[in-house]
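Build the 3D complex.
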Amino acid sequence: MDKILEVKNLKLYYHTSKGTVKALDDVTFDLFKGETFGLVGESGCGKTTTGTALLRMPTPPGRYDGGQIVLDGRDIIDLPENDVRKHIRWEKISMVFQGAMNCLTPVYTVGKQMLETLQEHREMEKVQAEELIREYLELVGLPPEVMGRYPHELSGGMKQRIVIATALFLKPDVVILDEPTTALDVIVQAQIINLLKKLKKTFNLSFIFITHDLALEAEVSDRICVMYAGKISELGTNGQIFGGHPAHPYTEKLLSATPLLHKKVDTLSFIPGAPPDLIDPPTGCRFHPRCHKVIDVCREKEPELKEIGTGHMAACWRCGE
Amino acid sequence: MNDNDKASDVILTVENLKKHFTPHAGLLASLGGPKRVIRAVDGLNFSIRRGEIFGLIGESGSGKTTTGKMVMKLIDPTSGTIVFNGEDVTSIHRQRLQAYRRRVQMIFQDPYASMNPRFKIREVLEEPLVIHRISADRRKRGEMIIKALNEVKMNPPEDYMGRFPHMLSGGQRQRVATARTLILNPMMLVADEPVSMIDLSTRAEILHMMKDVQRDLGLTYLYITHDLSTARYFTDRIAVMYLGRIVEMGPAEEVIDNPIHPYTRALIQAVPEPVTGQVETIKELAISGEIPSPANIPPGCRFHPRCPFAKPECSGQAEPELMDAGKGHFHACRRWKEIG
Amino acid sequence: MNLKDLAYWFNDFWTEFRREKSGLIGLAILATAVLVVVFEPLILPFKGAAASWRNINYWEDNSPNAPPVWTNLLPGKDSAVTGTIKPARVSEATIEGGAVATTWEFEYVYQYDLPPLDLIMHLRATGNLTFQMTLQRPDGKSILLSQASEHGLANGTIRMAATAYGRDACFAFLKQYENADRVGILTSSDMKVTDIAFAEAKEGMFDNPVAQKGKYRILVTAIGNAGTDKVESCEIIVAGRVSGLLGTDNLKRDLFSGIVAGLKWALLIGLFVSFVSVIIGVMYGIIAAYFGGMIDKTMMFIYYIVNSIPVLPILIVFSAVFKPSLMTIIWIMIIFSWTGSVMTVRSMALQIKEETYIEAARALGSGHARIIFKHMAPLLIPYSFASMALSVPGFIVFESSLSLLGLGDPTIVTWGAILHDAMLGNAMLNGVWWWIIPPGLLIAIMGMTFAFLGFAMDKILHPKLRTR
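Done.
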C-alpha cells in the first residue's frame, strides 16, 4: 500500500504562563492509502490535537516544536499559511470536527452553506456546484430536497451526513473524523459507520478516526493508535489490538473497562486515577502511576516506541515478557 | 403484572403515565387546525422492586428523561399515577412532596452542571441538610458530610470540602453528586445517564461505587440510559422505551440475550463490540431511518413504519399492550411468535 | 443562613478580596470618601459652606474666579493668597473727652508679585463709634484706607473694604509719587486700590507697579465711649488672587468647600438610588423569569408601562406642583430607574433557570425562595454590582440634570449643581478650569471606584473567572 501521509516525531507544545504543556510528544505514524487509522485514548491525551495539527491549524497557543508532517513528499509544517489554505487544507486533508453538526448556521439553508464552502475553494457556476452538492448528498444517503432545509429541520444523523459530505467535496486524500458519532444514538451511529465504510471503499479514502470508544474503533479502523498523555503507547492492526493480546497495559486496561453487551461480567475493571498534567508529566513512563504492571525501570526511564511484531509498536518496558 | 404476589416488595409503580406537551404556537397557528401535541411519554406501565436496579433504556426522544423527571416530581404528569411505597404521589404538594424528596433523590447526567458552580463541595453537600432542616449545628452537619463523602470513597473527605466543583475531575464530581443524594438516606435514586459524561477509564469505577452504595444501603435505582452495555452490567431488569412507551421489559440478561421486539433487536445489533474482524463488513441493520418526532406518532404499533416485519395489521389495529413471554419477560409485539 | 455562617462566608470572601488589587484601590477610595464625609466639619474651610452655598452674602469676602492656591507653584508670577489675619496686638488708649480708642494691629507679610484684590475688615460693635483703618507699608509710608462713623449699633457687624473706602486715600498716595503728567490725566476710578497700596512708591508705579515686598501692618482703630460702646472680634480678610485648594467660582464661592460638602450627597444619591433601584430591578427580573407564565406576563406589562413613561415632562409637572426636596428627588429617580436592569436580568435569569443545578436543587426539595435567593440571585450579584457601579455616576449626573432644570434641591450643594453653575457661568469660555475639572474628575473617580469594587467582587463571586 502507498503511504499517503507520514508523521515523524511530531511535537506540539503549548507555551503557557504556567509552563510548557507537551500536548504532543514524538508522535510518529504513517497513513496508507485506503485505510482507516484510529486514534483512541482518554480525553486530554492528544487525539484531537493530533487531528488539528495535521490540518496545520493547532489550537492556540500551540506551536510546532519539531517533527514533520509529510504529505505528497512535502513537509507541510513550514509551508506558508497561504499555500496550506490553497492546496492542503480541505483540498488534501479535511476534517469533521467534533460537534460540527451543531455548528451549522441556523439562519441559512443547508444548501447555501454547502455552496459557500464549495465556492470558497472552486470557481464554478452555481448550477454546476449545486449539481455536485446533490451528487454528494446522494452519496451520503440524503435526498436532494435537504438543500432547501434549515439545520433545525434536520435530525442529528442527517446533519452529520451533511458535515461528512462537506468534508468530501474537494476529493481530499485524507479525512479526519473527530468523534463523528458521539452525540448520536446507537442505531444512527451504526448507520453513519456503515456510510463511512462504504465511502472508504468507493473512493479508496484514508480516514483518521478519532474516538474515545474502543468498541467503535474495533468496528471501523484497520489500524489503531492508542495515545496516552500526548504520546503513542501502542500502535497495531485491528487484530493485534482487539485480537485478545494487546501489548501495552494501558490498552489492556482500556479494553477491560469497556463493558461488553453479550457477556455478563461481575466486575468491570477500571484505571485508577486520572491522566497526568502535561505541564509536569510523571518521570519515566507517563502511565506508570496508574499501571498495574509497573516495575522499577518504568519509574525512571521513558520507554521507546519499539516494534514488537510486524507493524505492531508499543512503548512499554514489559512488552517483551 | 405479575408482581401481585410480592406486592410489598414493590417500591414504585407507574401506571398509564402520560406527559403531553403543547408547544406555544403563534397566534395565527392557534386559530386554525388542531393543536400540535408532543406526546413525550404516552402510557407507561412499570414497577420497580425494592432493592433492585431498574434500567430504562431508550434513544434520545424516547421519553426516558421525561419519565425520570416525572418520577422525581420535577414535572407533573398529564395523566396516570405514580405510587411510591404504597402512597400515591402523583399530585402531592408541599410537606408531602418535601417528605417524598427525602426518600427519592436524583443523580444527573452532567455532575458539573448539577452543582451550583459558586458552591464549595461542603456547601453542595450541606444543601439537602439545610433544606430539610436535618441539623442546625454546623459541626454536626460537617460530620454528616464527611460520612457521605466516605461512603462514595472520596478520601480524605476534608481535602475536598473546601474545593469548588470545577477543581474536581469528572469522576470525583459524580461521586460528590452521589454523596449529595445519599446524605438524606433516600430509599430510591433516579440516575439519569450518570456515567455518559465520564471517561471510559473511570466509568466502571463510578458504576462500581454506585453498586457498592446500593448494596450497602439497600437502595433502589431507576437507571436511565441509552447505553445497553452498561445497562447489562449494572441493572437487574431493563425496560426498553420507544416513542414514549415501553416495548420490551424483563431481566437485563434475558432481554439482551433473547430480545423479542424488533426494535430491541435492532438496538442490540447496532451496539459496537470491541472484537476484531468487523472492519470489512457492513453491519446489517434491520431498521432504517431515525426515531420520528413525538409530535407525530404513527397509528397502531408506533414502531411499524421502521419495522422490517410490519404487516398491515400492525398499523391497522390498536396499539399492542405489553405481553408476557414467560420468565418475567414482557414485550409489545403482536407478531412475536411469527418473527421468532 | 445564620450569623455564624455569614461570618464564615464573609471571612472567606475577605481572604479572596484581599488579593484583588483594583478592588483594594476601590475600597481605599471609598473608605477615604466615607472618612471625608464623617469628618466633614473638620475639613471644611468655610464651616457654613453647606448651609449657605447659595447665600451670596456669605461669600462676599472672597475673590471671584480665583484659581487654586497651588497654582503659585507653577512657573510665573506669584499671586497673593486669600486668608484671614488675626490681630497680633490690641491696645487701648483713652483720649480726651472720655473716649476710648481701641487699636488692633495686624501683621501681613507680603511676598508675592501680584497684590491681593482687597483688604476687608470685619468687627462687631455696640454703640456709636468711629473706625479707622490704616495700612503701614514696609517702606515706612502709610495710607489711611478708611474712616467711618456708625451710630446706634447693637452688636452690629461692620465691614470695611479697602477698595470701597480707601480709593481716595490711595489716589492721593499715587499722586504723591507718580509722575505728575501721568497722574494728571487720571481719576481715582482708573486705579486699582491694592495695586497702588502694595507697589513700590516711585514713578511709573501706575503703569508698571513693582511689588513692595515685606511686612505690612494694618491698624484698625475704633473710637467710642468707654463703658457704653463695645467692639470685638476684629479681623482682616485678605482677598487674594488665588484662593483655597480648588479656587473660587464667579460668585466667590470656595469650590473646595462645595466639593467636600457635595461628596455626601454624591455618595447618598449615587449609592442609595443605584442600590435600591438595582435591587428592585434584579428581584423583579428574577421573579418574573422564575415563575413565568401569567406572573411574567403581568410583570412585563407593568415594566413596559413604567419604562415608557417620559421622565422629564413628568418631573417638570411634578416640580411645578411640589417643592422638590432631596428625598423626593431620590424617590423619583428610583421610581423611574429600577426598570434599567429588568430586561437583562430577566433574560439572564431565564437562562439560569434552565441550569441543571436549579433542577437539582428542586429535586433536593428546595423551595422557591431558596432557589431564588441562594441559587439565582448570587449569580446575578456580579451583574448587579457592575450595574450599580455603572449607574452611580449616572445618577449623580441625573441629579445635576435635575438641577439644570431648576428641579434640584436648592438647599444643598451637589457636584452636579456645581457643574451646572460652571456651565451657566461660562467657566469653559473664561478659562476657569478649576470650576469644571475637579467636580467632573470626582464624578469619574467615584464611578471608577465602584467599577473597581464591582469587578473585584465579580472575580471572586464568579469562580469561572478565577485563574487558580
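Residues 2-339 of chain B form a domain with the Rossmann fold fold (CATH 3.40.50.300).
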